[in-house]
Amino acid sequence: MPPSIPTQADSIAHFTVNGTPVSAERGTTVAAALMQAGIASHKSVSGQHRSALCAMGICMECCATVNGVQHVRTCQVLVEPGMEIVTR
What we know:
Blueprint: E1 12-17, E2 20-25, H1 30-36, E3 42-43, E4 49-50, E5 63-66, E6 69-73, E7 84-86
Parallel strand pairs: 1-7
Antiparallel strand pairs: 1-2, 3-4, 5-6, 5-7
């Protein structure tokens, strides 16, 4: 039997951020998906919304809790269906 052709629905990952449903194309980093959804990774001590800065895992600005694991560099992780992300 030949392999099935992926549909557009197959290329979308549905996950939650702070309990809110979010969708992004598979192959997108979590940091990019957060930015596309307009969600900040965390707030600075002065209350400013912060997000990924370097996008290569050095600056730690994109850290969030992913599937219960704290301090995950979201610029280094691809979205997966069912992920639970909590921003700081």
